[in-house]
Amino acid sequence: MLPHTIDCLRLSKAMQTTAETMQLMADVHQSHITEGCQPWQDVIKENSTPSSTFAPLIDMHQGTHKKLVEVVEKEQTMEVRES
User: Fold this and answer.
1) Domain ranges within the chain, ordered by starting residue
2) Confidence at residue 69, expressed as pLDDT on a 0 to 100 scale
3) d(CA 73, CA 78)
4) Which parts of the chain fold into alpha helices (H)?
5) Is 27 left (phi over 0), alpha (psi -120 to 50) or beta?
6) Which pLDDT does position 1 carry in this prediction?
């Protein structure tokens, strides 16, 4: 074999080994993300939307505010009538 052919084969083998190693590392990182980080991401997603978590409290507050506005308006109309 010619010397440059041997060098070319060595380079090809080195590139193949490098690619396989990079794929292995990508698989390790992916499994870490899936197993280690996904539960944290799920918790963050659950708590990042307080409107769904606190919907009953928000509804109660809006109902109370609406009733307060009605009472205040009623009191103001009563004061105007009395004057």
Assistant:
1) 1-48, 52-83
2) 93
3) 9
4) 3-32, 38-47, 50-53, 55-82
5) alpha
6) 62
Query: pLDDT digit string (tens) for 18-74?
Result: 999 999 999 999 998 888 888 888 888 877 776 777 888 888 999 999 999 999 998
* Dist. CA 69–CA 13, nearest whole Å: 78
Neighbour tally for 25: CB within 10 Å? 10
Both tokens of 73, joined, read 């308006």
Please give the pLDDT value at position 53: 73
Closest CA to 1 of 57, 83, 9: 9
The 3-state DSSP class for residue 83 equals coil
The first and second tokens of residue 83, run together, are 């004057």
Helices and strands counted in the chain (H then E) = 4, 0
